[in-house]
Amino acid sequence: MNTKQVQKFVQAYCDSTGCHIVEKCPGRVTVKLSPEADRALTNRPYYWSFVDRTGTPPETLTYSWFFEAPSAEDGQSSPLSYLMTPAGRVIQEGVYFGSRRLQQLFDVVRQGGRCVTLFEEPARGMGDPLSSQPYTAWLGANFKVSFACDMRREELHSYGVSLATGVIDDKFMDRLQGRKLTPRLPANVHLLRNGLSLRKGMTQLESTIERKLKNADFAWAAEAEERRQDELARIGQYYEPLLKNEDEAQRKLFLERFEQRKAEIDWQYRPRITLTTINCGIFHLPGIH
Amino acid sequence: MQSFEPALEPDFAENSVEQQSLSSAQEHQTGQPATSAPLGSATSFIDPNPRKLNPLVDLHIDRSAFEELDRRVQRNGPWDDWTLYQMALEAEETELVADFHALQCVKSLPRFEPLPHQVETARKVLQNMRGRAILADEVGLGKTIEAGLILKEYLIRGLVKRALILVPASLVLQWVRELNGKFDIPAVAQKKEYSWNNDIVVASMDTAKREPNRAMLLEAEFDMLIVDEAHKLKNKRTSNYQFVGGLRKKYCLLLTATPVQNDLSELYNLITLLKPGQLGGEGDFASNFVQDRRVPKNEEKLQEALSQVMIRNRRSDGGVHFTERHVTNVPLRLSPEEMALYEGVTSYVRTHVKAETGMDLTSMLSLVTLQREVCSSRDAVFLTLINLFKKTGEDSPLRARIWELVALIKSIKSNTKAQKTMELIRSIDDKVIVFTEYRATQEYLLKFFKEHDLSAVPYRGGMNRGKKDWMMDLFRRRAQVMVATEAGGEGINLQFCNHIVNFDLPWNPMRVEQRIGRVHRLGQSKDVRIFNLCTLGTIEEHIVHLLHEKINMFELVIGELDEIIQQLEKEEPLERRIAQMVLESADGDELRRRMDGIGEKLLVVKQREGREKPR
Questions:
Q1: Is B94 in contact with A117 (Cβ distance < 8 A)?
Q2: CA angle B273-B278-B279, nearest 5°?
Q3: pTM above 0.90, yes or no
């Protein structure tokens, strides 16, 4: 992420959580957090439980975020500083790729953007106000597939399944691109009856991905397995002579170590694929699909 | 945690097997420990019912987000924001590890830029060595940085969550600072019991192997283990070795600057800790590679086997630029009063040694210290004399002798060396660090500089971390001079200063090197100028002669000295050897001859090391 992208990301977060932008200039933004953002970002659980229990109006923090990464020279200095202004204390802080604050924002949006139900807003003035437009419910999900052995690689996939017909779209986020979505059911719209349950829909998506993965290239896994066997053979030639040790206690000790090393190698090299649902939602889109 | 009431709709019942697997997956998510957790459950999601994708590969499915959706549908909300939903995907895209190999960590280190050889080392360890390696760079090339890069990369890739870093006690804080400051790795120093709960802990080896920590750590499993100063693990029978061998770890880095190759069995032990069998079984190793304890056979094969587990970058490989060192000796003559004191102390030491033949080495050494102290300042020797006076029996004839010496001290009105140092600092007209061996001298110098309007700050080993930092900061911003008694230990990095005055010299060349190392290291952009004060006609003259003219140590490359001294000190510490010579020599000439002898030996070692270099 470059400086501009980071700034856009932070701006989007502030807008969607209702933060008050005090001042904005290229490379820097000063923002008074909304209660929601304050709870998520400032790590003040005691303060917030105090506010919740006493009903005191909350006093949120104000940050001045700059987006240019510091140079190597001032890398030693603290990334945080305070500034006293007539309006109160302002915390100055760098937000750039690799900084803890951006990392935290990533985690916060992952938590805060997990499950949605949305409707597409029909274009204004279109269609007959007396007739009703049919909407199809889609289950959309973003998946992360991680291929791991002693190394690791990841892929993202965005799938959607029509809960009416079971049709599958393997570029679902693209389908949503440019549509105006709202959490409220628009007027003059009726929802089609679902042929699939939510769970059935999810199973369909999973088995689609599973089929795709089955046909993918497993050379990496074969290589990892080769490495695993190689490592096992290596420790075998070390420990096996030791297991012929005369002394019972010694032998037991070596056997224990041998087993431990084998378990470590398995842990490190055994190839595995993990499919994680990053987030998912129900999307009601116009048309019958 | 919200309670979850499964609604038994027909759809749910129709697939009861799957239902079961889903709910047990959920249990796992809520953090209930599985009864027999396999190794590695800490880092990656483990599906209790994985499916086979391929004879080699299981598919684990983490449906927690979907379960959440399902729950919210039952309760009709609440629903998340569409923008955040898209941003969550953007965050995942940004942090995606798209490639098995390309290093990800370099782009997320905004605060510094690693050197090419450091990045290359990290890449090799990850790709070719499968995350288990000995990092054996020569001193000053940044092993800590390399270890940090590797750890960061595994953290980014989600292959490491828990890491244990074992280092000497004096380096714990320095490691924590480097990892936090340079790499944004949230490492903590082990201080209290609860510190162990952190994912990334830096602890001293001694703390870690003490009960109850030991038992607890041996039960745990670490995705990564890093051991600094790993040459201390060369002996199989030590508790350190047994302890590290017993730890459960996935990736493992051993850091050492000592050329372990010099002793083959030690090398073998170290590698066995990392990858048992890399050099074959114990018997195979002896017959395949060992000629004599220090002499390998089948050198080429050995080197090849080693190169799979060990990386040793050398300064001579180039790529790292160090500035030069310029050494100036500043000879000076003591004032007649000071010389009288020196003669007095010397004759006292001589007669004392002769009087008590059965003297142990330690008290001999403390006598020689007297002579060295006179060369530094009257304040230093005064304290020692007073202590000596207190220790001597009331009726001892030595008491009167000591008192005479104290009287001589009183007659000294000025310190020739301090005068000279001040002239020197004035002429340098830039930041200067003055090193002395003695607290009393340090105090005196600070007072002396203050009287002459030179701003100076102290620095010594006994200060706590905060005070040390403060002094460094004062030196950087305000003071022209720092007067330091300690050079070793953790992190004083003074690259912004390039002048050193050795007010007096330690007899251990390693300590001299440590002093210079504070200033002459990666990041120093100017040539370093070193001034040695040398009082003529004293033992100091001999030491300066040995270190400077004989082995030319001040101009050795950084780290080269380590190796030379280690070779020589296999028998006896150098410092002691010199002390013994001073006591046993009848006069200056004999002393000089014997010093030259040591010098020759050092030269021989140096040449041998030098020959091994070009590889």
A1: no
A2: 105
A3: no
